Amino acid sequence: MKKYYIGVDVGGTSAKFGLYAEQGSEGNVEQKWSVPTTGKDASDVLLGKLADSIKEKCVEYNIDMSQVAGVGIGIPGPVDDKGVVLNCANLNFGIVPVKDIMKKLTGVDNVAVGNDANVAALGEMWKGGARGYTDIVMVTLGTGVGGGIVVDGKIHVGSAGAAAEIGHITVEPNETESCGCGCHGCLEQYASATGVVRLAKKEINDHPESVLFSKGDSLSAKDIFDAAKSGDEYACKIVERSVRYLGIALSNIASVCDPQLFLIGGGVAAAGNIIIEGAKKYYDEYSLKALKNKEIVLAELGNDAGMLGCIRLAGAE
Amino acid sequence: MKKYYIGVDVGGTSAKFGLYAEQGSEGNVEQKWSVPTTGKDASDVLLGKLADSIKEKCVEYNIDMSQVAGVGIGIPGPVDDKGVVLNCANLNFGIVPVKDIMKKLTGVDNVAVGNDANVAALGEMWKGGARGYTDIVMVTLGTGVGGGIVVDGKIHVGSAGAAAEIGHITVEPNETESCGCGCHGCLEQYASATGVVRLAKKEINDHPESVLFSKGDSLSAKDIFDAAKSGDEYACKIVERSVRYLGIALSNIASVCDPQLFLIGGGVAAAGNIIIEGAKKYYDEYSLKALKNKEIVLAELGNDAGMLGCIRLAGAE
Fold first, then answer.
1. Considering only alpha carbons, which residue of chain B is nearest residue A173?
2. Contact A252 B159 (CB under 8 A)
3. Which H helix or E strand runs over A295?
4. Could you give the residue range(s) of every CATH 3.30.420.40 domain in chain B?
5. Which residues of chain B make contact with A185, given a CB cutoff of 8 A?
6. Where are the alpha helices (DSSP H) in chain B?
7. Do A288 and B168 lie within an 8 Å CB cutoff?
8. pLDDT tens-digit readout, B196-241
9. Which backbone phi and psi does A73 adopt, to 5 degrees?
């Protein structure tokens, strides 16, 4: 009988599902779907919705629940090694034993729960830009900066479920503006979409010659990277600042855990090589000889990384 | 028949040996000795010396080599997960398969090799300041700054044997002076014995009122911490700078690997609470909420940490 795994990447606006059929050594995502989330539902309401959707789809696709070998769930907040979510602002969750609740709601015994950025790293290692590696760090440059660390093929969760909080590595101890977390000088203040825009806005009034000057409040990270690629001097300066701090953060990560490879993903990473080349340059400038010249590559799976990582987390091979 | 483990912590001036007898669940270091090293011997000469010393002492203590269940060796340089040393400036080693060579030279089949700072962390977890923990980071503040990371009870080696290079985390990207490694702004430039003295010397001529002023070239890290404890204003300012960067580095480490506890060891740590309290203050200032308030404690085993960690690395329980 065919064996299935279901991955659910839960976000503040939607939960992305993937149905994966394992057949011998060849696997395949047979179906994808999503359900809207509000970010405000009580945890039992949201988890009930997810379980209902799994059960409905199994009926629709003629899959008996006994064929579901595992369910993996990604949550945008810290998750401990027992599958308990420890406060998740994006979902309005306090301390919620997601693993146990989902076991009961689905009747599936094998439920695994992980942080969304961590499972995305696992997904990229399984099917994406880090295939063939076992020790990787993924950095997701989006509205904020997230991260995932995989050591020896397994997600490194950390003692408080807060490992790989890459966005909050201090890269500029003399920063005077506050990060969203309340600290000063976090990577997120320079390398997230919001951070790059913040950097550009600070001195934009001194640069009427820049194409960014006329953008006003609509200025986006994409505008800045596009302008830099076209040679706009001020945009180049801003990008250089941003990738310098990214390179420093990667170097600091390497000094701690010495991975085989870094993956850069998230919306900002759509800018592509301008980020990779800049990060490499500053990574090497700030790294110990034994750590220099590590591979830094773009993530490949986009929005599917988390869902695929959830499937892998549940045990698919 | 009694089972023994032998630990050898190799340094540039001496190798420290410990003979450990495992009897039921109670273990004991029965003998300690050391042999001088030059830091210049060819690797086969040095390793030959170590093996000879092990064999001589076993004869002296009436131990048959078949009773030696394991030999653990700590090396002051990067070591990969196969027990190969990858260049070690302190011992003048290139790439040396220490594990295989020592197996041949001693006839003991179970030889384990690790980086000295890593095995010291393991030693502290086994018998010292981190007893009862499984996920710790040890930072050694000596002439330089070293580190060891233990995850789930095992040393985290890293893909190039260069994990836990804590001393070379960038904490001040705007530093203009160079670290010994050639980079700028490494923790070692602020928190090592050399680093604290460097900080103090920079502005000492503007502070004739300080007790440090008259020390001249003999100024030591101990002088600075002692003066700070006595309330010398300039010394306090220097210590504050040093522990601020230490706290930032610990915070960055936590953002990557989220350990249960930090241990601070090495000669500089003899200054005691002034370092712990300062590091805690700045650690919390620069850390994400989920990571704040971690335990930061002094290491307890002093110079024996490495030797004990080697015994543990070899498999003693």
1. B172
2. no
3. strand A295-298
4. 3-128+303-313, 136-298
5. 286
6. 43-60, 98-106, 116-127, 188-191, 193-202, 221-229, 233-257, 273-286, 304-313
7. yes
8. 999 999 999 999 999 999 999 999 999 999 999 999 999 999 999 9
9. -130, 130
Domain A136-298 top-level CATH class: alpha beta
Chain B residues near residue A169 by CB distance under 8 angstroms: 252, 255-256
Q: Vertex A131, ends A125 and A134: CA angle to 5°? A: 60
- Cβ separation B256–A260 shorter than 8 A: no
- Find the closest chain B residue to A289 by CA distance: B181
Q: What is the mean pLDDT of residues B124-133?
A: 96
Q: Do A251 and B170 touch (CB under 8 A)?
A: yes
Average pLDDT, chain A: 95
Give the CATH number of domain B3-128+303-313; options: 3.40.50.11590, 3.30.420.40, 3.30.450.40, 3.40.50.1980: 3.30.420.40
Q: Which residues of B touch A151 (CB under 8 A)?
A: 151, 156
Rounded to 5 degrees, φ, ψ at A305 are: -55, -45
Interface contact B252-A78, CB threshold 8 A: no
- Contact yes or no for B268/B191 (Cβ under 8 A): yes
Q: Is A14 helix (H, G, I), strand (E, B) or coil?
A: strand
Handedness of CA A75, A81, A82, A87 (dihedral sign): negative
- For residues A315 and A306, give the distance between their C-alpha atoms in angstroms, rounded to a whole number: 14
3-state secondary structure (DSSP) of residue B151: strand
Does the beta-carbon distance from A255 to B135 stay under 8 Å? Answer: no
Q: Do A184 and B252 touch (CB under 8 A)?
A: no
Place of tokens 């790293």: A121
Maximum distance among all alpha carbons in chain B? 68
> Three-state DSSP class for A194?
helix
Alpha carbon of residue A59 to chain centroid: 31
Give the 3-state secondary structure of residue A78: coil
pLDDT tens digit sequence for A116-162? 999 999 999 999 999 999 999 999 999 899 999 999 999 999 998 88
Q: Closest approach of chain B CAs to the CA of A204, in angstroms? A: 23
- CA A120, A123, A124, A130 dihedral sign is positive
Instruction: Report the pLDDT value the prediction gives residue A176, as an integer from 0 to 100.
Output: 96
Residue of A nearest to B185 (CA): A286
Chain A residues with CB under 8 Å of B174 CB are 174
ipTM over 0.85: yes
Which amino acid is residue A22, in one-letter code?
Answer: E
Concatenated DSSP letters of B103-150: HHHH--S-EEEEEHHHHHHHHHHHHSTTTT-SSEEEEEESSSEEEEEE
Number of inter-chain CB pairs under 8 A, A vs B: 143
| φ/ψ of residue B50, rounded to 5 | -65, -45
Mutate to test the interface with A, among B133, B150, B169, B248 (most CBs of A within 10 A): B169
Find which of A170, A261, A283 to mutate to test the B interface (most B CBs within 10 Å of its CB): A170
Residue B11 near residue B116, CB atoms below 8 Å: yes
Chain B residue whose CA is closest to A80:
B258
Asked if A173's CB is within 8 angstroms of B248's CB, the reply is yes
Q: Which of B183, B248, B252 sits opposite A286 (nearest CB)?
A: B183
In angstroms, the CA B21 to CA A90 distance is 54
Say whether pLDDT at A84 is over 90: yes
